[in-house]
Amino acid sequence: MPESTETPRQTAAELNDQIRHLVRGGLTATAGAEYQRLVVAWAEALRAEQELAA
Q1: What is the pTM of this model?
Q2: Which long-range contacts (CB under 8 A, 24 or more apart) does 45-49 make?
Q3: From the CB of residue 44, how many other CB atoms can be counted at a distance below 10 Å?
Q4: Distance in angstroms (rounded) separating the CA atoms of residues 20 and 1
Q5: 2: left (phi > 0), else alpha (psi -120 to 50), else beta?
Q6: In 3D, which of 17, 7, 52 has the Cα closest to residue 38?
Q7: Which end of the chain is more exposed for a tag (fewer CB within 10 A), N or C?
Q8: What is the DSSP letter of 35?
Q9: How many angstroms separate the CA atoms of 7 and 4, rounded?
């Protein structure tokens, strides 16, 4: 069977830490896209974790 090339998903807590670190440094124009990507990934991870807990 071929190996999966999918990267492991980060937890909501890990993504939240990344968001906090990014914001702590001040949001620049170039950091805005990364912030948006992280927030979307955080929301998806949070939703997935809540579904697992239900």
Answers
A1: 0.77
A2: 45/9, 45/10, 45/11, 45/12, 45/15, 46/12, 48/9, 49/11, 49/12
A3: 13
A4: 39
A5: beta
A6: 17
A7: N
A8: H
A9: 8
